[in-house]
Amino acid sequence: VPLYRVTLAYDGTDFLGWQLQRPGGGRTVQGALEEALGRLAGGVRVAVTGAGRTDAGVHAVGQVASFDLPREMPAGELQRALNGLLPSDVRVVDAAPAPPGFHARRSAVTKTYRYELDYGTIQLPQRRLFAGFAPGPLDGEAVRAAAALYVGRHDFASLASAGGSVRTTVRTVARSEARLDGATLVYEAEADGFLRKMVRSMVGGLIAAGRGAMPPEELARALAARDRRAWPPPAPACGLTLVGVSYPPAPRC
Amino acid sequence: VPLYRVTLAYDGTDFLGWQLQRPGGGRTVQGALEEALGRLAGGVRVAVTGAGRTDAGVHAVGQVASFDLPREMPAGELQRALNGLLPSDVRVVDAAPAPPGFHARRSAVTKTYRYELDYGTIQLPQRRLFAGFAPGPLDGEAVRAAAALYVGRHDFASLASAGGSVRTTVRTVARSEARLDGATLVYEAEADGFLRKMVRSMVGGLIAAGRGAMPPEELARALAARDRRAWPPPAPACGLTLVGVSYPPAPRC
Predict the structure, then answer these.
(1) Longest CA–CA separation in chain B, Å
(2) What ipTM describes this predicted complex?
């Protein structure tokens, strides 16, 4: 059976997140995609794997999903057909045949997330579903110093949400950059993987540092403590977007 | 009684527009503001005047409203109290005492609107409530030439929505600028006033010009015809934002 990968953008506001819930459990992106694929496949269930299990309210512009389709079809036609069947808050922005053995989650090399935080006095209503809000001021120097702390291989147990069942809380962060632009903080992080709520906790750390509540040195100690009680609370979900997923380059001649 | 002016930002998605409807007629920004003011004033109705009567789905970052309040209160306190009472899709971004005789609509000198139009192949779901969508390509040269046509004093009868009851369809456009940025067209227009759906019709003209369906010369003839059947259809409401309203400078020493 032919294997495909699609790149998805979605407005996470009205979803309980990526992952399929038990029947009646609520609207999910995976559920919406599987429903559209099931209709394309004439009623057969098409199981979908997503690269990142985004939480409720979290958005994506570059989520990647893979699935086997019972019948072969040109990728452009698959994309158009899915966009005709999907609700308006999810779009397939790219579709392609996947190489044998491709798995959206296990084949991923890195994931990149972006977080936007408005820290002015008042947040524009137009931004309330796409950016977190935390009244400032924030010290730019301290925010950037805190962002730099995350780079490299660390045990991020202090930033992991309770109840996660992961083998290891060690992750390698390749890039962690914050810029303050007007009254908006834009943060991007790329890593080989992220624990549940890890990016939102990273941003919680940036806010604490920017407000002077926890200077970068203290944040470094809280990271080393591997204890989530030592860490500031995570930033709200709505500011977070899964920007993209990278895969090994295809073999070439 | 003390007179105030407030500057409002709103996400117009879930409003039937600015203007109060008959009871049970639906949610409006004026209605939300009057309800909040009524609660502040201890149940007395506070009638509000808005500078621009934005339509359903149209947003604002700089709408201005004026009203008499039964009791005097510091402007900062008024702002905070209103933001505590208003729904989350409307914010008071500024509040100030207004000079005697101030009237948000009649005192206005110019209004500025912005329209955003995505013209790529696929629109990001995150943008669907804040930008129109019309698949391109658009010719930037033709779009800018069309935008330049609107500048100056013209009879805009071709761009007026049916059913409006205005004394004159002549308006003076001080500024009309389009820029194409990636796959988004950002258009701004400033005028002494706009007819109903006029900005959206202006953008309809830009799209027709950009697609080559109506070259700028032909658009100029359609404008001069003062006949709305000669004009391309208006762009959708969701891309439109009332950016600001200008008033005469206060007298100074």
Answers:
(1) 58
(2) 0.91
